[in-house]
Amino acid sequence: MSRFDFKSAGDISRTSANAFRLLETVLSGFQRLTAGHQFTRSRNFRTITASAAHIDGDDYILVDASSAAVTYTLPRAVAGVELDIKKIDSTANLLTIDGNGSETIDGATTATLSSQYDSVTVASDGTAWHIVVLALLLPLLGGI
Prior knowledge:
five-stranded mixed sheet; 2 domains
């Protein structure tokens, strides 16, 4: 006998009613547990056109290096902080991402982005920065 072997329409009705009661109970409990908690937060965009250091509140950093190469200096490594940095211009000028002081990014003192729309997400463990996402715009080969 399968788990869903119903003998009559009444069995289906009772099973459906029980499933809905269970779902209501679970959702009600979840609402009580999460009351007052905000799961999403507003994230701030900042566009820079010249070398700059992190400012508290930077979440998404858009870098326009059309005039010259740009260096963006990360903040002091604090566990749990995550930043998204993206090069938005089409020039050959490099975007260099620099760790704060002697702090490293995946073991190196800097990371660079060279093409328009290249982006990186870095996260800190409290002592260093780690690249958790790297998106590079690569030329398509052979139309693929």
